[in-house]
């Protein structure tokens, strides 16, 4: 019988394909060994309306990320050492606990560098009574093969599409291949959702199945944002919900770098991107009010809801 944790022996779970022996305690480019770490498991009210609704999304924040975005606001978990080590049984327990709290769904935040554990946890939780949808909340920098392998345990893909330009992706996230990789991953997500009947909503508007593509507008990069929207439209059209985000906030690193990234997005820049989305024909379009600050969407990564956190 195949060991579900074999991928950790020579890790190629993400596009970095670093080949690290994560099962031997070595950390891959994602920053993690084969043992998952979770920084928070709690109701989360700041996602798009079909995800959070009024009851909240049951968000489980995993530590680690294969990207290195210079503007990251979640650096405590993406590149830091926050979090508590957990196993697949404990992750399943967190899912069931969030369901008991009334969560609309289980929202797995940046989980796929631990895809073997996540898959096992969802299957166990379902055997133990989990009935709410599973949301995979990802940067979009995923291998299409990993996405395909997770299709039977993921109901909703909440994915970023950050860049159209490889040069911009290289400069800001150290991943020149991001545009092509994210496009292939999105195509795989759409294929899986189509196979299950496409976009599905509950009577209250909660998403039961589908794809939401997020794009964060960056200062000085309106042309790239519009090209990203073109790419998403060509690939999925109105099979996807589009979320155009206006929450870029320069962190200390960006303020020191100077240039456009040291300021926020202007109202004019954001309006240009929204108008382009409207011109393309997106019907399920989500946007944010002006003056949104990214830090206001970042919860305390204090171990809330994580077994063994004391």
What is the residue-mean pLDDT, rounded to a whole number? Answer: 94
Poorly predicted runs: none
The arrangement of helices and strands along the chain is EHEHEHEHEHEHHEEHEHHE
Helix content: 25-40%
- How many E strands? 10
Number of helical stretches of at least 4 residues: 10
> What class would the helix/strand composition place it in?
alpha/beta
Quaternary structure: single chain
Our measurement of the CA-to-CA distance between the termini, rounded to an integer number of angstroms, reads 36 Å
Shape: globular
How much β-strand is present in the residues? 15-25%
Q: Compute the gyration radius: what is it?
A: 18 Å
Largest sheet, if any?
10 strands, mixed
Protein described:
- Helix content is 33%, strand content 16%.
- By secondary structure, it is of the alpha/beta class.
Secondary-structure blueprint:
Elements: E1 37-44, H1 49-52, E2 57-62, H2 75-78, E3 84-85, H3 88-100, E4 106-109, H4 115-127, E5 134-138, H5 144-149, E6 156-160, H6 166-173, H7 178-195, E7 200-201, E8 207-216, H8 222-236, E9 240-245, H9 252-257, H10 267-280, E10 285-287
Parallel strand pairs: 2-4, 4-5, 5-6, 6-8, 8-9, 9-10
Antiparallel strand pairs: 1-2, 1-3, 7-8
Helix pairs in contact: 3-4, 7-8, 8-10
């Amino acid at each position: 019988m195949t060991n579900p944790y074999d991928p950790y022996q020579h890790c190629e779970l993400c596009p970095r394909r670093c080949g690290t022996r994560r099962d031997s305690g070595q950390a891959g480019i994602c920053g993690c060994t084969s043992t998952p770490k979770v920084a928070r498991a709690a109701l989360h009210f700041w996602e798009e309306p079909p995800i959070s609704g009024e009851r909240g999304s049951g968000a489980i924040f995993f530590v680690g990320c294969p990207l290195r975005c210079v503007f990251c606001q979640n650096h405590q978990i993406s590149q830091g050492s926050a979090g508590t080590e957990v196993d697949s049984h404990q992750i399943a327990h967190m899912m069931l606990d969030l369901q008991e709290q009334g969560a609309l769904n289980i929202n797995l935040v940046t989980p796929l560098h631990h895809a073997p554990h996540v898959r096992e946890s969802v299957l166990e939780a379902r055997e133990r009574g989990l009935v709410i949808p599973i949301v995979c909340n990802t940067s979009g920098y995923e291998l299409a093969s990993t996405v395909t392998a997770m299709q039977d345990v993921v109901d909703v893909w909440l994915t970023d599409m950050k860049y159209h330009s490889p040069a911009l992706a290289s400069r800001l996230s150290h991943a020149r291949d991001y545009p092509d990789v994210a496009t292939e991953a999105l195509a795989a997500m759409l294929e899986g959702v189509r196979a299950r009947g496409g976009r599905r909503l509950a009577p209250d508007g909660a998403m039961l199945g589908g794809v939401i593509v997020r794009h964060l507008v960056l200062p000085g990069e309106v042309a790239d944002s519009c090209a990203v929207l073109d790419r998403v439209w060509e690939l999925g059209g109105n099979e996807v919900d589009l979320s155009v985000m206006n929450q870029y906030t320069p962190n200390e690193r960006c303020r020191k770098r100077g240039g456009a990234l040291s300021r926020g997005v202007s109202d004019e820049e954001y309006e240009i991107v929204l108008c382009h989305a409207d011109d393309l024909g997106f019907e399920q379009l989500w946007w944010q009010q002006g003056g949104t600050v990214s830090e206001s969407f970042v919860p305390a990564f204090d171990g809330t809801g994580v077994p063994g956190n004391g």
